[in-house]
């Protein structure tokens, strides 16, 4: 089966000042439809840049991304995005925030009221439909931004360290909620994190990236059974995956790529 997303030899150099910043170095990997793939790597290795290139928000300097066989050359329509900060509009209610992508797509929010209600119920926020965002905790706000990303039923969900600002327990709760929703909706998820444990808990495949310029060090399949549980995180198999990834990242930091220029 052809992959849903193909990242092909993607290079990215930001032209800033006298010297360009090389963010990505010939990054290639495939993502199967319906799978959950995490990108793990040190801060600044180009994870956010790669996610933006996949979504079509910014172009690659070289190489290409294909989604469903089609070359990505502009922002994709069938994609939901969740960022580290929930960025809810404070003058809008929870439901009105969830409706934003509906309005951007030029559709009628009325047709999506049931959808918004059922999504909010799915994350335990059915009673907050008409609330102002400031009444919600950080974890609740991030649940709202997940609902917002899902309201138009995207086939692909791109998440950039979505739970990185939350405390560990809330993050675990949201990780498990995300897995439940993913199982129900059969989407393809690309999830950026620098938390190794979170990547192993969630993913079918972990793409391990080197320090900048980001290269793919490994595409590691995670063979843990599903549904995943928090109990698994204390098991031996889980621990081995963590060690393998940590060793890859450590090696890449200890042996940075040789610089040829003076
Ligand atoms: N718009 C930009 N202009 C210049 N440099 C950028 C821009 N965006 C990102 N970078 C640089 O590219 C590198 C990768 O950034 P980023 O993708 O945000 O990394 P990560 O998400 O892995 O922390 C960093 O060195 C960052 O400073
Ligand atoms: Mg980032």
Question: Briefly, what is this?
Answer:
The chain is an alpha/beta fold. It is built from 8 helices and 10 strands.
Features:
single chain, 262 residues, alpha/beta, Rossmann fold, six-stranded mixed sheet, four-stranded antiparallel sheet, 8 helices, globular, binds adenosine-5'-diphosphate, binds magnesium ion
Describe this structure in words.
Strand 7 (156-160), helix 6 (168-185) and strand 8 (188-193) form a beta-alpha-beta unit. The protein is 33% helix and 24% strand. It has a six-stranded mixed sheet with strand order 6-7-8-3-9-10, sandwiched between helices. Strands 2-1-4-5 form a four-stranded antiparallel sheet, with helices on one face. Helix 7 packs across helix 8. It contains eight helices and ten strands. The protein is globular, with a radius of gyration of 19 Å. It has 262 residues and is α/β, with parallel strands linked by helices. It has helices at 47-55, 94-98, 100-104, 113-122, 138-150, 168-185, 196-202, 236-254; strands at residues 5-15, 20-31, 36-40, 62-67, 70-71, 79-82, 156-160, 188-193, 205-209, 216-221. The protein has a domain at 1-72 and 190-254: P-loop containing nucleotide triphosphate hydrolases (Rossmann fold), CATH 3.40.50. The structure holds adenosine-5'-diphosphate and magnesium ion. Adenosine-5'-diphosphate is lined by residues 14, 16, 21, 23, 41, 43-49, 212.
């Amino acid at each position: 089966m052809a992959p849903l997303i193909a990242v092909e030899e993607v290079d990215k150099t930001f032209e800033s000042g006298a010297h360009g910043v090389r963010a990505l170095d010939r990054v290639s990997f495939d993502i199967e439809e319906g799978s959950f793939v995490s990108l793990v790597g040190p801060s600044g290795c180009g994870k956010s840049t790669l996610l933006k290139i996949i979504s079509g928000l910014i172009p690659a300097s070289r190489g290409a991304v294909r989604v469903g066989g089609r070359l990505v050359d502009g922002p994709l329509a069938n994609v939901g995005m969740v960022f580290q900060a929930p960025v809810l509009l404070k003058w809008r209610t929870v439901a009105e925030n969830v409706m934003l992508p509906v309005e951007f797509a030029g559709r009628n929010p009325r047709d999506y009221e049931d959808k918004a209600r059922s999504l909010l119920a799915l994350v335990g926020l059915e009673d907050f439909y008409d609330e102002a965002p400031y009444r919600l905790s950080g974890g609740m706000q991030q649940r709202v931004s997940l609902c917002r990303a899902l309201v138009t039923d995207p086939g692909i969900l791109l998440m950039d360290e979505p739970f990185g600002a939350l405390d560990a327990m809330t993050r675990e709760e949201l990780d498990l909620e995300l897995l439940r929703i993913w199982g129900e909706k059969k989407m393809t998820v690309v999830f950026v994190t620098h938390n190794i444990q979170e990547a192993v808990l969630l993913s079918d495949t972990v793409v391990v990236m080197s320090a900048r310029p980001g290269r793919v060090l490994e595409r590691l399949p995670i063979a843990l059974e599903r549904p995943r549980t928090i109990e698994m995180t204390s098991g031996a198999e889980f621990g081995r995956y963590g060690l393998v990834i940590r060793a890859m990242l450590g090696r890449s930091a200890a042996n940075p790529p040789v610089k040829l220029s003076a």
